[in-house]
């Protein structure tokens, strides 16, 4: 799938089927460009086209080259700039059979060939909306995120981003940076005034407030990125400690085979679940021990591959009437092969055999460290779900969460670094004002990358190339 080139305003009209592939009650063919009245006359007939009014549905036939009917449905016309793309838009809503839709699209392309109507590239309608200032880049990305949302919470958060919640927060930070930059530049332009800028303009106070606001925005963006990307949770432990039983308990279904025979699981088994709207990909793996055959050896190596890509590791040990089984070999292997920064939550399973209650032990910082549970009986499973969210950094942000992407997090972190550098420059007094101003400018640029105020064409190609055709 090729990435669309960034079109200039007034580029040739584009057309595509805007509904999902397959059969449906309704299908939509969308056209965007300039001078679509002539195309409407060819598709609807002169008399019907003359009745087209802005944003008013018109029922009638869609005509083929010879005047015969391809289908009957609704035609909608949106004059520029009051449309999704900011250009003239013509939508034909007919019956959603794939053959009917393809015939209608082919007719649109033939009828509009004199005007240069061509098939749209993936994401090109939304790209034109961005280029025509109907959406900023963060809102445009939210369109795709809303379509791809895997949970209800992710969909609601994407809708908030599309409505501009994230963008407005970014713009508020940018406005604060601009105000601070103006004060710095004024001081640099009129040094003879001998104004003690740092004190009279409360530059350090303004900067501190911007840093606080940025830290809060970054925390919210992490929440939004987690809703979009989900979390890879890998179950590890020796054979027969109950990893497959725990996967089934978390999933609420028998997705993994469970037997008393050690080593039943030979390969990775994945199951997507959601906890409080957060998507989790839980991965059951082969038990860690000295391999007895080639198949088991390959399964164990795949366990370590999963650990290397994990966001969170659950290390299972078994409890019985004699206490908790030792796991020194697994502890040592994890210490050697676990990537830095990946949290490990210890899970003591089979408390139904040891007689212990379900509970959570925490470290000195209050973070979950060990969860006691019984996967077979289900006791402690809800405690584990809550502990997973805590370790992932999920907070009860409710309706304030917006969707975010990794590139947004990178830009916010870089802006944070520039503000920290600006604070260091400010601490050195007026002699560092030029460098102070430069760090503020760089922070503003990084924030501008989020909404598209500073964007390279190749970045736009990558972003919009991942959209579906027709959107």
Describe this structure in words.
The strands form 2 sheets. Strands 7, 8, 9, 10, 11, 12, 13 and 14 form an 8-stranded mixed β-sheet that branches. The protein has a 6-stranded mixed β-sheet with strand order 3-4-5-2-1-6, covered by helices on one side. With 471 residues, it is α/β, with parallel strands linked by helices. β10 (312-320) and β11 form a beta hairpin. The two termini are 14 Å apart. It contains 17 helices and 14 strands. 45% of the residues lie in helices and 19% in strands. The protein folds into 3 domains: 14-134, Probable tRNA modification gtpase trme, domain 1 (Gyrase A, domain 2); 152-225 and 405-452, Four Helix Bundle (Hemerythrin (Met), subunit A); 230-392, Rossmann fold (3-Layer(aba) Sandwich).
DSSP E strands, number? 14
Report the mean per-residue pLDDT as an integer.
83
Range of strand content: 15-25%
Would you tell me the structural class of the helices and strands? Answer: alpha/beta
Q: Tell me roughly what share of residues is in helical segments.
A: 40-55%
CATH fold category name of the largest domain: Rossmann fold
DSSP helical segment count: 17
Largest sheet: 8 strands, mixed
- Top-tier CATH class of the largest domain: Alpha Beta
Outline type: flat
CATH superfamily of the largest domain: P-loop containing nucleotide triphosphate hydrolases
Number of domains: 3
Radius of gyration: 29 Å
Low-confidence stretches: 5-10, 256-267
């Amino acid at each position: 799938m090729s990435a669309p080139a960034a079109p200039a305003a007034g580029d040739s009209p584009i057309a595509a089927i805007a509904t999902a592939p397959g059969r449906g009650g309704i299908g939509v063919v969308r056209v965007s460009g300039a001078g679509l009245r002539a195309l409407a006359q060819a598709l609807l007939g002169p008399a019907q086209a003359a009745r087209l009014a802005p944003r008013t549905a018109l029922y009638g036939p869609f005509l083929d080259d010879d005047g015969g009917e391809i289908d009957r449905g609704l035609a909608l016309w949106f004059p520029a700039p009051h449309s999704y793309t900011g250009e003239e838009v013509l939508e034909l809503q007919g019956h959603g059979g794939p053959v009917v839709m393809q015939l209608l699209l082919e007719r649109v392309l033939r009828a509009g060939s004199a005007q240069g109507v061509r098939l749209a590239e993936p994401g090109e309608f939304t790209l034109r909306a961005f280029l025509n200032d109907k959406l900023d880049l963060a809102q445009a990305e939210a369109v795709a995120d809303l379509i791809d949302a895997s949970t209800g919470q992710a969909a609601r958060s994407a809708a908030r981003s599309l409505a501009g919640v994230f963008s407005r927060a970014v713009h508020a930070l940018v406005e604060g940076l601009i105000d601070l930059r103006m004060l710095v530049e004024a001081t640099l332009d009129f040094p003879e005034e001998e104004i003690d800028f740092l004190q009279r303009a409360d530059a350090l106070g303004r900067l501190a407030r911007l840093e606080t606001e940025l830290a809060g925005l970054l925390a919210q963006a992490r929440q939004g990125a987690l809703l979009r990307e989900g979390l890879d949770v890998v179950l590890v432990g020796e054979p027969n400690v109950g990893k497959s039983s725990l996967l089934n308990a978390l999933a609420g279904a028998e997705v993994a085979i469970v037997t008393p025979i050690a080593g039943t699981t030979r390969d990775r088994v994945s199951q997507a679940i959601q906890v409080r709207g957060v998507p989790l990909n839980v991965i059951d793996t082969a038990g860690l021990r000295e391999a007895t055959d080639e198949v088991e050896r390959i399964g164990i190596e795949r366990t370590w591959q999963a650990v290397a890509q994990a966001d969170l590791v659950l290390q299972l040990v078994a409890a019985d009437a004699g206490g908790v089984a030792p796991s020194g070999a697994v502890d040592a292997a994890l210490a050697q092969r676990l990537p830095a920064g990946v949290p490990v939550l210890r899970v003591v399973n089979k408390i139904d055999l040891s007689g212990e209650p379900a509970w959570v032990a925490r470290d000195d910082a209050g973070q979950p460290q060990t969860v006691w549970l019984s996967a077979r009986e289900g006791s402690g499973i809800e405690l584990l779900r809550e502990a997973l969210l805590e370790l992932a950094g999920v907070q009860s942000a409710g309706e304030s969460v917006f969707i975010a992407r990794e590139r947004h997090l990178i830009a916010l972190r870089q802006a944070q670094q520039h503000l920290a550098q600006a604070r260091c420059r400010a601490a050195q007094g007026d002699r560092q004002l030029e460098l102070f101003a430069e760090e503020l400018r760089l922070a503003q640029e990084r924030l501008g990358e989020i909404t598209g105020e500073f964007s390279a064409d190749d970045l736009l190609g990558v972003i919009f190339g991942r959209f579906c055709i027709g959107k």
